[in-house]
Amino acid sequence: MISIAGTQVNPNTLPWNWSQTDSARRILSQMAANRTVYSYSRPEELEFEIRLRTSIMNEAIAMEQSNVSFADFEHSRCNPVFWILSHQGGFQLRPNVSPSAAIRDIYWNGHLYSFECATAMIILYYKAVLEVIGDRLFDQLFGHLYLYSWEYDRDLAVRTIRTNEFLPADVLYFINPDVDPMKPEWQGVNVVNFGNGYYFGHGIGIRDSAGIILSLNRHRRPGATRNAYLLNQATNPGYSYLYRVSSGMTSPLPIIARIGMNSYRIFD
Q1: Helix crossing, 117-133 with 43-64: angle to 10°?
Q2: Dihedrals phi, psi of 168, to nearest 5 degrees
Q3: What's the pLDDT at 21?
């Protein structure tokens, strides 16, 4: 159910240009069908979420087409022009490099990059946000990027909730409980839900749930009896927070830097 300023809203009464794409129509249709109440302070906040969810799905498809490759942290690779490869296998933004240019380079020069599936989700979140809010605000918000697993800038405001009602662009997780201990990278896969029965998972591609489960099951330990399955949880960036920041209604969160036992608040 969709609620704007405390009033239930029928998607058919919303501006026609909000649902010009199949992705937008799927988002609104699923919101209206779910028991969960999706609450917004004003119509523009809902419109922003639709745009960002659509962008997430677009960037998932673009990543699949970008020639980036899958690798565990030990074998991660990045373009040294924009990133410093850490000993953990993470990517630290180089000083004096534009964050927006560095994120775009992952898509433009994908053959230079290898990373695992959680990092992939954060990268496509950044790219999706970039395409919605533009270079200037993106560079202001995300000037200290470090790409490693589920580590992310606080201004991305990512959160995971327990639910069995999913929306297009939700990041979901297929877990492989009987994974082969010699192949820990196959313990599960993060995927972007397209809302049409298909998902994108870095290293697996765009498949339906049966295809993803089959891929994970191939990497179970000998004698395994449990199939991979989809967890009842959904992960998303902070749509409401990003809307308020992009609209000038909220100041970006300060960066917290720690040196020894001391903490410092840094405002860009």
Answers
A1: 130
A2: -55, 135
A3: 85
Confidence grade of residue 261 (pLDDT, cut at 50, 70, 90): very low
Q: Give the β-pairing of 83-85 and 69-70.
A: unpaired
CA 14, 155, 23, 192: dihedral to nearest 10 degrees? -150
User: 61 in helix, strand or coil?
Assistant: helix
Q: What is the dihedral sign for C-alpha 47, 124, 212, 36? A: negative
- Do β-strands 83-85 and 91-93 pair in parallel, antiparallel, or remain unpaired? antiparallel
The CA-based angle 251-254-258, given to 5 degrees, is 175
For strands 205-208 and 198-201, give the pairing.
Answer: antiparallel
Strands (E), 110-204: 114-115, 146-147, 159-162, 171-175, 188-193, 198-201
Taking the alpha carbons at both ends of the chain, their separation in whole angstroms is: 38
Residue 82's pLDDT is: 98
Single out the residue of 143, 46, 56, 65 nearest to residue 98, CA to CA: 143
Prediction pTM value: 0.91
In this predicted model, what pLDDT tens digit does every residue of 211-251 receive, in sequence order? 999 999 999 999 999 999 999 999 999 999 999 999 987 65
**Residue 51: in which H helix or E strand, if any?**
helix 43-64
Q: How far is it, in rounded angstroms, from Cα 268 to Cα 261?
A: 22
Phi-psi region of 137 (alpha: psi -120 to 50; beta: other; left: phi over 0): alpha
Mean pLDDT of the chain, nearest integer: 91
